[in-house]
Amino acid sequence: MSSELPRIREPAQMTSAYASVLPSYGSKRDPGKALLQTLGAPSTAVRDRKIPQDWNAAYNTHVRLSDKDKNKSETQRDASNRLIKDLDQRTKTKQAEINRQLQDRITTVSYWKQRLNTEHASICQEITNLNMSKQKTQQALAATELPTEVSTNCLKNREGREAIDLVQDLVDDELINELNLLSEIQRLMQTRLLDTDNRLRNLNDCKNNLELDIRDKEECLRLDEHCYKLNNGSSGLQQVSQASIYEGGSSTVDDHENFSQKNLEQSEIARVMSVLQRELNDFSINKSNDELQKQSELVGAMFRQRLKELTDAKTGLDSQLEKTNQEISSVEDSLHQLREALRSKDGPMKVATTRFAVRSKRPNVEQTRDFVHGGLMNEINEIASSQESLKNQIACAEETLHRLMKNKERLQQDIAIKKKSIQIDEQQCLRLRKTLNWRGFRPAGM
Predict the structure, then answer these.
(1) For residue 150, is it left (φ>0), alpha (ψ between -120 and 50) or beta?
(2) pLDDT of 17 higher than 70
(3) In whole angstroms, what is the distance from residue 418 CA to residue 162 CA?
(4) Is the pTM value of this prediction over 0.70?
(5) 113, 221 in Cβ contact below 8 A?
(6) Mean of per-residue pLDDT scores for the chain
(7) Gap between the Cα atoms of 375 and 178, Å rounded
(8) How far apart are CA 138 and CA 133, in angstroms?
(9) Residues 6 or more apart from 376 whose CB is under 8 A from it?
């Protein structure tokens, strides 16, 4: 609002009634003070009076404040309108997003339900197959005591290896695998019926877990499909408090999928183990001999490979020992030459220092720093430097010789260790394994 503000006009002249009684104060008289004096008001009341400029300033201030408040009000109304529109749009967008998420969730749960149904049908069929296999299962015994004893003795003999050669190598791994295979065959041949019962119990547990999961999926689909059909105009809608929504426990999407995936994996593992059990019930007797024979050949191959590695290592160590001995001889010769060179510097040093001492006895002015004096000083310094260099070189050579001797000792020890390892694997283990007599076995009627 920009209208011209009214202004208070100052009095141009006093009325004749007051003009005759008010005192004169020159060209700059104070009418207000004069009036107060005339009316008999206290002199301090003069400070309570306002001038026209104060009135105008107060009026202008009120107008500015009013305009400012009006502008703020308009801004607030605009912001409120924008907020209403924005929140309305956000609500609609969020509801559409939830509808899409519900549809995606229905698709996901349906996918898992389909997988669970497929696995459920498979595990039911496997239970029937395993029950049939259980009815025709027969017991058989295997002569596995000798192979078990030989493999155990080989492992015990190889414990006699020393130092770095006492490693968990492929030979040990395959010997342990052979013992595990023998133990497994013995156990399976004696307890196949018990194992079959365990497999059946495991299959039934997995089947129950799948059925529970399928029922939960069906209920979840029913509820989510109901929610997907709801809209703002649906009947029976009610406001639900936040606390009541989350009263029960909840799980994450990953937990939900992992739960079903775990049920599927456990069921698949159970079915695989059941198939293996049926195959073992039917064919373990015929195949046990072949498996043990293959494992024995593998152990023998590992022994031969390890013996080749040990022989190659020993040959390499022998070569290194020979080179080390040659180097030790060369270093000793070099050390002898260095010591001789150091002793050869004693004579020139004595001559130079003696000359220097004798010439220091020259009398009076003859004690001059002539060319001979400088030459002797340089010669002494040079010889001392040579001696120091030779001493340093001798120290380095001695350190090198010490390292070579230590290395020689290590090589000799390692060669002895390799010889013992070769003797254990070749003379004890392989010779012992030649006593194995693999005999096929099968029960009567097979």
Answers:
(1) alpha
(2) no
(3) 9
(4) no
(5) yes
(6) 79
(7) 86
(8) 10
(9) 352, 355, 356, 359
CA angle 9, 11, 15 (to 5 degrees): 150
3-state helix, strand, coil in the chain (%, to 5): 80, 0, 20
Q: What is the pLDDT of residues 80-109, one digit of tens each?
A: 888 888 888 888 888 888 889 888 888 988
DSSP, residue by residue, 423-439: HIIIIIIIHHHTT----
Query: Between 31 and 314, where is the model more confident?
Result: 314
Q: Which residue has the tokens 């120290």?
A: 395
Amino acid (1-letter code) at residue 77:
R
Distance CA 222, CA 229 (A): 11
Cβ pair 199, 192 in contact under 8 A: no
Structure-token match 């010439």, residue found: 359
Q: Would you call 140 helix, strand, or coil by DSSP?
A: coil
Q: What is the pLDDT of residues 188-241, one digit of tens each?
A: 777 778 888 899 999 999 999 999 999 999 998 998 888 888 787 777 777 766
Q: Which phi and psi (to 5°) does residue 49 adopt?
A: -85, 145
191-194 own/partner pairs: CB under 8 Å, 24+ apart: 192/137, 192/139, 192/277, 192/280, 192/281, 192/284, 193/134, 193/137, 193/139
Check residue 446 and report its DSSP letter. Answer: -
CA of residue 34 relative to chain centroid, distance: 95
